[in-house]
Design a protein that fits this description.
The complex is a heterodimer of chains A (about 250) and B (about 300). With about 250 residues, chain A is α/β, with parallel strands linked by helices. Chain A contains 10 helices and 10 strands. Chain A has a 6-stranded mixed beta sheet with strand order 6-7-8-3-9-10, sandwiched between helices. With about 300 residues, chain B is mainly α. In chain B, strand 1 and strand 2 form a beta hairpin. Classes of the chains: A alpha/beta (about 250), B mainly alpha (about 300).
Chain lengths: ~250, ~300
């Protein structure tokens, strides 16, 4: 479904991604782990069209989308969340989800002006469905900026779901959550996975990653240093070295 | 209820006012159209423009030249005035709309100056510093709206129409996308919004409202001159839009009413009128940076 091959990207001489390749199959959940600064978020930014790589290619459902317009990538069925919570702060919770939900609704700016409600009503129904899924339907009319941290994570998720993704890129959805919120978030991601949506999951919480991912990829300094099932990866000495350093020999 | 204030004042004014006050009323109504248009940029797109007065001038000159030179019926000059303002605003503004913050403001000041220079110096087209004189009164299907009272009602109808149309625009999916873009362009794009197109449309609509207001202006004094459409006018309209408040069309209408009629009720202050005017602005910006209506709502809540 997604094939990333040999992506290289440097910022002012710093190699953020140095030949990253990975694939995600239909309905698969791929965990992407690695120390801070290893290039996980940068990789997401390349896949979702925010950064154009220096070389390499990204193919999604057989089409090359390398450096394509982010909007076209969403339209192709690839949505994402942001680690640093890029919500529309002044919009209500419902409106945040309505923005992507209106993308596929009938009507246009002019029919809205003429007073047609059909597109808007359909969009709101879809947005409310996504809000109900993440459990924010009670807060539909609250300004997004005033949400608690954990609620912002769930709103990010609802907004991405309203894009109708076939592949969802989740950038640290459990970061900053309390233990009970984490297990709620894990349950949500499981339910999304069970709907058949493929997921790429960047997450530092190992319990969450291990339980959700069928396969893991480990990034370090912009290079894939290991891959495989969760059990294989945790026993890989290179991974241990990347996280904890190498043992000192006498 | 305060949001009904401009409409109540507009409906009652002819009962009590003389021709002079009606002219002030017409002026306020005309300004409100341009201010509402500017509000698409300042309130909803988060972009501050200082070119609105110039685009207003484009509308005024297009109407004035068409009815005097080409003897075009006034109402036919309306779409032309709107179109001219939209073309100038969109063609010259859209390269700049990608810029953020101060850089966009600077480029709109440039646009404003270019418009003034063209109006002043392209004499063969605009009549240059002589201005355009002897503009006939506004007429609808041969019926002249020559008296101050008739012209006043025409302005009120236009202002009300522009206000209600703007409410539809703001409530449309475009209005939603525009607010999303002004909050976060990147996540708007990854939510499927056409970011550049949305911003250019905001610019076009804002120019259209300026053009319509300029059209009325041509029939207000029935004389246009480049010096009517300088940076000063842009600053005044920007002040009204900001004073009215963030994303509040009602607030912009009230602000235009309060500030546009200031020349009248500040009369007792004589030559210190502008000092008082400046003081009002300064106090609002300090006490109510989001505009008057949110501030009033906040006061009510505190009680």
């Amino acid at each position: 479904m997604l094939a990333v091959s040999d992506i290289r990207l440097s910022f002012r001489g710093v190699r953020a991604l140095d030949g990253v390749s990975l694939t995600i199959g239909a309905g698969e959940t791929l965990g992407i782990i690695g120390p801070n600064g290893s290039g996980k978020s940068t990789l997401f930014n390349v896949i979702s069209g925010i950064y154009r790589p220096d070389s390499g290619s990204v193919a999604f459902q057989g089409r090359t989308i390398t450096g394509a317009d982010p909007r076209a990538i969403v339209a192709a069925g690839l949505a994402r969340t942001y680690q640093n919570k890029r919500l529309f702060g002044s919009l209500t919770v419902l409106e945040n989800v309505l923005v992507p939900a209106m993308r596929t609704q009938p009507g246009s700016f002019l029919s809205d002006i003429a007073g047609s409600r059909s597109g808007r009503d359909a969009g709101e129904a879809k947005a409310r469905e996504a809000l109900a899924f993440v459990g924010l339907d009670d807060l539909a009319d609250t300004e997004a900026a005033s949400l608690a941290y954990g609620q912002q994570n769930r709103l990010e998720l609802a907004r991405a779901l309203a894009c109708d993704p076939a592949l969802l890129l989740l950038d640290e959805p459990a970061a900053g959550l309390s233990p009970s919120e984490r297990s709620d978030m894990r349950g949500l991601i499981e339910r999304i996975r069970d709907r058949g949506v493929a997921i790429a999951l960047v997450e530092h919480d190992m319990r969450v990653v291990m339980q959700l991912s069928s396969r893991l990829v480990v990034l370090d300094h912009g290079v894939v240093i290991a891959g495989g099932t969760p059990a294989e990866v945790t026993e890989n000495p290179e991974v241990v070295a990347a996280y904890f350093g190498t043992p000192i020999d006498d | 209820m305060i949001r009904l204030l401009p409409f109540v004042v507009a409906a009652l004014l002819p009962l009590v006012a003389n021709d002079y006050l009606l002219e002030i009323g017409s002026f306020v109504a005309i300004q409100s159209i341009s201010v509402i248009g500017l509000g698409y940029l300042t309130g909803f797109a988060g972009r501050i423009s200082l070119a609105q007065g110039g685009l207003y001038g484009i509308g005024a000159y297009t109407a004035a030249l068409l009815v005097t030179g080409a003897h075009c019926p006034p109402l036919l000059a309306l779409p032309a005035a709107i179109l001219a303002a939209v073309l100038v605003g969109t063609l010259l503004g859209s390269p700049a709309i990608r810029l953020s913050g101060l850089y966009f403001v600077m480029s709109t000041i440039g646009l404003q100056q270019i418009i003034w220079i063209v109006l002043m110096h392209w004499s063969s087209l605009t009549n240059g510093p002589m201005g355009v004189r002897e503009i006939p009164p506004l007429s609808v299907a041969g019926f002249a709206l020559a008296s101050p009272e008739r012209f006043y009602w025409a302005c009120v109808v236009f202002a009300a129409g522009s206000f209600f149309l703007a409410r539809r625009v703001v409530a449309s999916r475009f209005g939603l996308f525009l607010r999303a873009v002004s909050d976060d362009e990147l996540s708007a794009a990854t939510s499927g919004v056409r970011v550049v197109r949305t911003k250019v449309l905001a610019l076009a609509l804002s120019s259209a409202w300026a053009g319509a207001a300029g059209f009325l202006h041509a029939f207000f004094l029935r004389f246009v001159h480049p010096d009517m459409f300088t940076l000063d006018l842009s600053v005044v309209q920007l002040t009204m839009a900001m004073f009215g408040g963030y994303r509040s069309l009602d607030g912009m209408m009230i602000a235009t009413l309060i500030l546009g009629s200031a020349s009248e009720y500040l009369r007792p202050f004589g030559q210190f009128r502008l000092v008082v005017y400046g003081g009002i602005l300064l106090l609002t910006m300090m006490l109510a940076p989001r505009g008057i209506l949110p501030a009033l709502a906040g006061l009510r809540r505190r009680r």
